[in-house]
Amino acid sequence: MDSGNRFGDMEITDPKAMRALAHPVRLAVLERLQRHGPATATQLSPYVGATPSVTSWHLRHLAGFGLVRDAEAGADRRERRWEAVARGYRFEVPEDEEGRAAAQVLAGEMFASRAELPMRWLTETAPDLEPEWLGAAMSNNTGIMVTAEELAALKDALEELLAPYVTREADRRPAGSRAVRMLLYALPEAVADEPGTPE
Q1: pTM value?
Q2: Strands 81-84 and 89-91, bridge-based pairing
Q3: pLDDT at 189 over 70
Q4: Are residues 171 and 107 in the same domain?
Q5: Partner residues linked to 11 by β-bridges
Q6: Are 10 and 88 in contact (CB under 8 A)?
Q7: 83 - beta bridge partners?
């Protein structure tokens, strides 16, 4: 079933790296670099809620775990530019206790950092969208009954469907393309929460 990492994401397996990334500023720094390309600590600072010196410290911390690296120098060669190592990242929940705890901390920070995105989109972006874009947007909250194997197959199928759009280079994008944020969660419920389970 597992056909690999179709998106070319960085795979984080080290619990220490998970804990390093599980910080609001570091998550914001990495996301900004992934979405907008190389930048200096000073350029990142207004977007990540930290001073340039604090942002620089977080960049060095991320670099220590291989999540960011030095980018080619810009016009001002005195400024250090940084870039994300990959356009995305992923992590599996390790089986050992330390790994599970680290993955939970990182997942919690990721959920918290994205919690306001749908409401911000609704209030700031949606009112100005063209009708065709507003009509193409989607929001689903659907429950399904599946086995763990079926859920893994569904995840694999979704990645296969999305991969050509995720990995398409800028010069191959059709005219009229724009960035679309896809938040996909598959959250298995506890047995007691399943439909039809007696109270």
Answers
A1: 0.81
A2: unpaired
A3: yes
A4: no
A5: 90
A6: yes
A7: 69
Nearest partner of 59 among 92, 93, 21, judged by Cα: 21
Can you give the residue range of the structural domain that contains 61?
A: 1-115
Report the alpha-carbon distance of residue 125 to residue 62 in Å, rounded.
Answer: 31
More confident site: 194 or 178: 178
In a domain, 121, yes or no: no
Instruction: Judge if 163 and 92 occupy the same domain.
Output: no
Q: What is the CATH number of the domain that holds 17?
A: 1.10.10.10
Amino acid at 126: A
Q: Are 17 and 98 in contact (CB under 8 A)?
A: no
Query: Which H/E stretch holds residue 126?
Result: none
Asked if residue 177 belongs to a domain, the reply is yes
Give the torsion through C-alpha atoms of 62, 9, 164, 27, to 10 deg. Answer: -40
Alpha carbons 196 and 26: distance in angstroms, whole number: 42
Contact 63, 69 (CB under 8 A): yes
How far apart are alpha carbons 126 and 119 in whole angstroms? 10
Place of tokens 């209030």: 123
- Residue 196 within a domain: yes
Token digits of residue 119: 């409401």
Q: Which residues make Cβ contacts (< 8 Å) with residue 102, sequence separation at least 6?
A: 15, 16, 18, 19, 22, 94
